[in-house]
Specification:
With 353 residues, the chain is mainly alpha-helical. Helix content is 79%, strand content 1%. The protein has a two-stranded antiparallel ribbon. Helix 5 crosses helix 12, helix 6 packs antiparallel against helix 7 and helix 8 packs across helix 12.
Length: 353
């Protein structure tokens, strides 16, 4: 019992604790509404991962930026940029699909560098700069592809939607790749610098760290994640559309905050993933809840507005819970650190005597 209590206390101090709780609540809601057999079936899990993988990867990219002390709400429309560049390069240039995907990732990297230049070099507020950049990128998308068009070879989108060994979603490979990249980057010197710059750029600069350089690396890493997310979106839709996924930018920001991330140096990648998972599962639960009502109540009909309203209310309550518990977590962590410091000082004093 003491071990369990100690483990729980350690988890409770983690920034991802609230996101984890909300994520588990969302799983319970889906299980109650759909039933365990249906929700945990291979087809259901595969559909959840395949249809929401682009969003989860954008959330991961947004998490990196928040840790470094900045953000990019144009990340959503950058997915459409990757999509149209990939489709049109294959369609117009006749290059292989894989080469088109690489060009799409390059496009995401260029967009990320432009946003970094506006934010870190020109000192434009990140929210304002990335919001304005949203319309610029949207215009570029329409210039490249004026109407939805194009297609993806069947072998590629079928591979994305398949199940490995009959139950593992193939789309999860993209998530594992991005997690591997982040784990490697986080264990390098960049992992320390990004938290230092996010927490206090001036102190980091005084310690010999160049904040603009670290944030450039963060934007480039975000660009890679968005590029992979754009490829997943292309495989999911199997076509091109210049005006899609725009809301992913602001939704990814909401997911990070709900998961426990705050602006600059506080939180982990797990926060973003739990927050993103919560948003995905809540929308899924609301959809099946109303589907259940349609079956149980003859003649029951509501518009999609009520679907969105109900899911947004739940998300708002989750956000309030995050704000309250985050303050409690920081206070608990501060008290714990202070008690450890006092204990060490007492031990040092006893040793001197």
């Amino acid at each position: 019992m003491a071990v369990v209590k100690r483990w729980f206390n350690e988890i409770r101090k983690s920034p991802a604790f609230t996101g984890l709780v909300l994520f588990l609540i969302a799983i319970v809601l889906n299980t109650l509404i759909q039933g365990p057999a249906k929700f945990f079936s291979a087809n259901s899990i595969n559909t959840l991962f395949a249809s929401n993988m682009p969003f989860l990867l954008v959330v991961m990219g947004q998490s990196i930026l928040l840790i470094s002390g900045t953000l990019d709400v144009s990340s959503g429309v950058q997915l459409a940029l990757v999509n149209v560049v990939t489709i049109m390069s294959v369609q117009e240039l006749g290059i292989p699909f894989i080469a088109g995907c690489l060009l799409g990732i390059v496009a995401a990297l260029i967009a990320s560098v432009v946003c970094w230049f506006c934010v870190s070099i020109l000192r434009i507020p990140a929210m304002l700069a990335s919001f304005a950049l949203t319309f610029v990128i949207k215009g570029v998308n329409v210039l490249i592809m004026n109407v939805p068009q194009g297609k993806v070879e069947k072998i590629f989108y079928k591979a994305y939607d398949m199940k490995i060994l009959g139950f593992i979603p193939a789309s999860i490979i993209a998530l594992l790749i991005c997690c591997g990249i982040w784990i490697y980057a986080n264990r390098s010197r960049f992992g320390s610098y990004i938290y230092a710059v996010g927490a206090n750029p001036r102190n980091a600069f005084a310690a010999g760290v160049i904040p603009a350089k670290v944030q450039l690396q963060a934007f480039l890493l975000k660009g890679v994640f968005v590029g992979i997310a754009g490829i997943c979106l292309t495989l999911m839709t199997a076509s091109g559309n210049p005006l899609q996924a725009e809301d992913y930018g602001i939704r990814s920001l909401a997911a990070c905050i709900i998961g426990g991330l705050s602006f600059g140096g506080w939180g982990t990648m797990a926060c973003g993933l739990f927050g993103g998972g919560f948003l995905v599962l809540i929308q899924n639960a609301v959809y099946y809840f109303f589907t259940l009502l349609y079956k149980l109540i003859p003649g029951f009909q509501v518009t999609s507005y009520w679907h969105n309203f109900m899911s947004d209310v739940i998300i708002f309550l989750g956000l309030l819970m995050t704000i309250v518990t985050a303050k409690s977590q920081r206070e608990t962590l501060r008290i714990d650190i202070r008690s450890r410091v006092d204990l060490e000082q007492q031990q040092e004093g006893g040793a001197k005597k």
